[in-house]
Specification:
The complex is a heterodimer of chains A (about 550) and B (about 290). Chain A has about 550 residues and is α/β, with parallel strands linked by helices. Helix content of chain A is about 40%, strand content about 25%. Chain A is globular, with a radius of gyration of 25 Å. Chain B is an all-alpha fold and about 290 residues long. Chain B contains 10 helices and no strands. The N terminus and C terminus of chain B are likely disordered. The chains are: A alpha/beta (about 550), B mainly alpha (about 290). At the A-B interface, helix 13 and helix 15 of A face helix 1, helix 7 and helix 8 of B.
């Protein structure tokens, strides 16, 4: 029997000043070499529990009862000096955003080996050598030299692997992974998951893996703890939870996953002529010879009541394409047509009505809604500007719009900071709808949301599309989310559309190797998916030359 | 976010445990005291600030004159309080002016960019490179001293600094999507500047306002000390210091009281700003 490294017993955490507990009576344990996943939607208390393993309670929170024993030490009662000795050495932490965790002014190797320096556990050369060993294990390119780089010289997925190195360098007994891949696009996620698996293999450590993404967890976890509203719903071996869950809540999570991206609303019988067209547009940054094309001769037609999905990983040019459609970034060549009439490239030159008819829904509702304004003001402003409605008419229409996106009329008095992520994204959508547009450009509107909430927003958009004959361009990196919704899919890579067609054709019989890799990168519940995804990646590496040829011939 | 709470936790706990500040309450009290005195008290005082009530200059404090008399035998308490009125009013209006000019141009430069921003920035740099006091002296020497001129000169001298601050704050915000969305839907420049940007800049600008006001009190006091501020027979605090300076030789504290008044107001303003900043009120921008 392997040694037990983590034991959480009847842990209760609540606000220092009193009030309802955030985490109530949570108990679980992890043995050597075991990965325990904490699963739940945002606000379920999973991150709070995982931070307790580091002896940390967030500002204003206090440990009320129970204990968290890590390697025999109760972290909830340890003093400051004990915690210092434990953190980074016995228990370490991998955060969601690696970019925020590294200092851009220092070389990566210096930061990665910092735990060794702090704890004076070994001389610098030995620590550097250990780091190189870990780089190699995590499949980082040029392991001997890559540590000399700075943050901006590596990719997001590589940076996440540096953070993994930092967490592993002291060979801790417990590693806390806090949504380590949630901020990454699927193809990068595969790299990092592979590295995490490599990290844990043959280790004497245990791990807590916090995530809201069941398929990701299915690849790594030995045990799963399902949390909701601060309590454990159920826990058990990963297979059991995924295949024969005993609780309704867990079943509903799995059910939502299976139904993702399925659209039940009826589609238009006849096809209308396209409302928005892009003809061979190229969009670039810089001027003259130094210009870089972010979008290279892309054409698309958006019909009323239909959804065109544009998929691709970060940097593929899909956001630039969206920006050029709304006029934020004028195309260098090619034309944009609204109802068959050419539109000026820059939004400043478009008429107010032309702007009204094409609305953009921005990616991050956090930055897209003015935090100083109430929801009523945010929506009302659009109505005043485009329709010159008086106060009463605006109030009535705001209520109507809030209802349309399934929000309550009281939300009109709230400010964005008082709403949840999903609610904010609905307001963001409502603002675009307030203009009564003909075309909606949705830029990664669900990438910051939990799976279940994201799915709700996606369905809402699909329903609006069918009922109101909206033409929709859906920019997305999540293939599953659009597979069942879209009428047409375009796969973009490095500014070029490498594959397009009906979603069934693209997903079931992808022709381009890049599409195949994208599809294989979508996390699947079944065991063995990670290996298949990795195999597909290597396949793409091998077929790089042929894919380049394929791009050439398509030109 | 959970990612940042771990390292800042201990520090955060320490900040939060600091007692509800007596210092802030005291600073606020001092300001309220001076504002109240400037607004209400002059009518209640037994002597007018310009009446000669004694044949002796630098009379010692007595039941009749609580702070004694000044170099011409006028009631010092009455003069101190009437000077509070001119000092606070002029510095407040001057700071308001500096912010009206600086904030508007700063936001405009951040939003528009291009040649307009370049011209404004170079202009601000020129202004900043000139010594403020010399500029004030030259302008007042040319135009002649009056309350209006004082307000305008002080406002003008500080507008360049405020411009730089407002521009820096606005630059962080103009790239956000809500600004982009507003411009995209065709909002006017004025709405984007004052409806969308300004409300989110207010916490930081308000902090600067308090700080700037203490600077302008000092600046005006300097001008008055050199004889170019508020003109006799009225005076501001800096003027009172100068008038009564010779009393120091004979042991009169007549020039010390206005000094304490200047110090109490500027230090209180600074303490309040610091307090507010550490609370996160001004430190945290609403992005």
């Amino acid at each position: 029997m392997s040694q037990e490294l983590l034991r959480v017993e009847r842990l209760t955490i609540g606000p220092r000043q009193g009030g309802p507990a955030i985490v109530q009576d949570v108990s679980f344990s992890a043995a050597q070499g075991e990965i325990v996943a904490l699963i739940g939607e945002s606000g379920s208390g999973k991150t709070t529990v995982s931070l307790a393993a580091l002896g940390h309670a967030r500002r204003g929170l206090a440990f009320r009862a129970g204990s968290v024993h890590v390697d025999g030490v109760d972290m909830t009662r340890a003093g400051r000096e004990d915690l210092r000795r434990m953190r980074g050495r016995i228990v370490s932490y991998v955060a969601q955003s690696a970019a925020a965790a590294f200092n851009p002014a220092f070389r990566l190797s210096a930061q990665v080996t910092e735990p060794a320096r702090l704890h004076q556990s070994r001389p610098r050369p030995a620590a550097l050598a250990a780091a190189v060993e870990l780089y190699r294990r995590f499949d980082l390119p040029e392991p001997e030299r890559i540590g000399e780089r700075y943050v901006h010289e590596v990719s997001g997925g590589q940076l996440q692997r540096f953070m993994l190195t930092m967490a592993m360098i002291e060979q801790p007994r417990l590693i806390v992974f806090d949504e380590p891949t949630s901020a990454l696009d699927p193809t990068t996620q595969v790299e990092v998951l592979a590295a995490i698996r490599a990290a844990m293999r043959g280790q004497r450590a245990a791990a807590i893996f916090v995530s809201h993404d069941l398929p990701v967890v299915a690849q790594l976890a030995d045990r799963i703890v399902v949390m909701r509203r601060g309590r454990v719903v159920e826990q058990g071996p990963a297979r059991t939870i995924l295949e024969t869950p005993s609780q309704d809540y867990t079943r509903s999570l799995l059910q939502a996953l299976r139904q993702r991206g399925k659209d039940s609303s009826p589609r238009a019988a006849a096809r209308f002529p396209p409302v928005l067209e892009a003809k061979n547009i190229s969009v670039g940054f810089g001027r003259g010879d130094a210009a870089v094309l972010a979008v290279d001769r892309v054409s698309m037609a958006v019909h009323p009541g239909e959804i065109v999905a544009v998929v691709g990983e970060s940097g593929s040019g899909k956001t630039t394409l969206a920006h050029s459609l709304v006029g934020l970034h004028a195309p260098l060549t090619g034309g944009i047509l609204l109802d068959g009439v050419a539109l000026p490239g820059r939004f400043q030159l478009r008429s107010r009505d032309e702007r009204r008819r094409i609305q953009m829904v921005f990616q991050s509702a956090d930055t897209a809604l003015n935090p100083s304004h109430t929801i009523g003001q945010i929506l009302g402003r659009v109505l005043k500007l485009y329709f010159n409605m008086d106060r009463q008419a605006r109030a009535a229409r705001v209520r109507e719009l809030l209802g349309l996106v399934h929000l309550r009329p009281e939300h009109a008095q709230s400010k964005p900071g008082q709403l949840s992520g999903g609610e904010k994204q609905r307001v963001n959508l409502a603002r675009a709808l307030a203009a009564s547009p003909d075309v909606l450009i949705c830029d990664e509107v669900t990438s910051a949301l939990d799976t279940v909430i994201a799915d709700g927003v996606m369905r809402l958009i699909a329903t609006l599309c069918r009922e109101r004959r909206l033409g929709i361009v859906m920019i997305c990196h999540d293939l599953t989310a659009v597979a069942g919704l879209a009428d047409e899919v375009k796969v973009m890579r490095r500014g070029v559309v490498v594959e397009e067609g009906r979603p069934d054709d693209v997903f079931c019989a992808p022709r381009h190797p890049y599409t195949r890799m994208l599809i294989s990168s979508i996390p699947q519940l079944r065991a063995g998916w990670l290996d298949e995804a990795l195999a597909a990646r290597h396949g793409l590496e091998a077929s790089k030359i042929s894919s380049l040829e394929l791009m050439d011939t398509s030109e | 976010m959970s990612t940042t709470t771990a390292p800042t936790g201990l520090l955060g706990r320490r900040l939060r445990l600091r007692r509800p500040s007596l210092i802030a309450a005291a600073a606020g009290g001092i300001l309220v005291f001076w504002i109240g005195a400037a607004l209400l008290v002059p009518a209640l005082l037994p002597h007018s600030p310009v009446d000669f009530i004694s044949d002796d200059s630098f009379e010692a404090p007595s039941a009749r004159t609580w702070l004694g008399t000044d170099y011409l035998g006028r009631d010092l308490l009455a003069r101190l309080i009437s000077a509070a009125r001119s000092t606070l009013l002029i510095s407040f209006l001057a700071t308001l002016g500096a912010h009206l000019i600086g904030d508007t141009l700063g936001i405009l430069a951040a939003l528009r960019g291009g040649w307009l921003a370049a011209v404004l920035e170079r202009g601000a740099e020129v202004m900043l490179s000139l010594p403020k006091l010399i500029v004030g002296l030259v302008v007042i020497a040319l135009v002649g001293p009056s309350a209006t001129v004082l307000v305008l000169v002080t406002a003008g001298v500080y507008a360049a600094t405020v411009f730089r601050i407002a521009r820096a704050i606005a630059l962080d915000l103009v790239t956000l999507d809500y600004i982009r969305a507003a411009r995209l839907r065709g909002e006017s420049m004025a709405w984007v500047m004052f409806g969308e940007l300004l409300p989110n800049m207010l916490p930081l600008l308000a902090a600067d306002f308090a700080l700037r006001m203490s600077f302008s009190i000092l600046f005006m006091s300097n001008l008055s000390f050199l004889g170019l501020g508020v003109q006799p027979p009225m005076a501001d605090w800096g003027g009172l210091v100068r008038e009564n300076l010779e009393g120091l030789a004979s042991g009169s504290l007549a020039s010390v009281y206005p000094t304490i008044a200047i110090a109490s107001v500027t230090i209180s303003l600074n303490l309040l700003v610091d307090r507010w900043g550490s609370r996160g009120g001004a430190g945290e921008m609403r992005t």
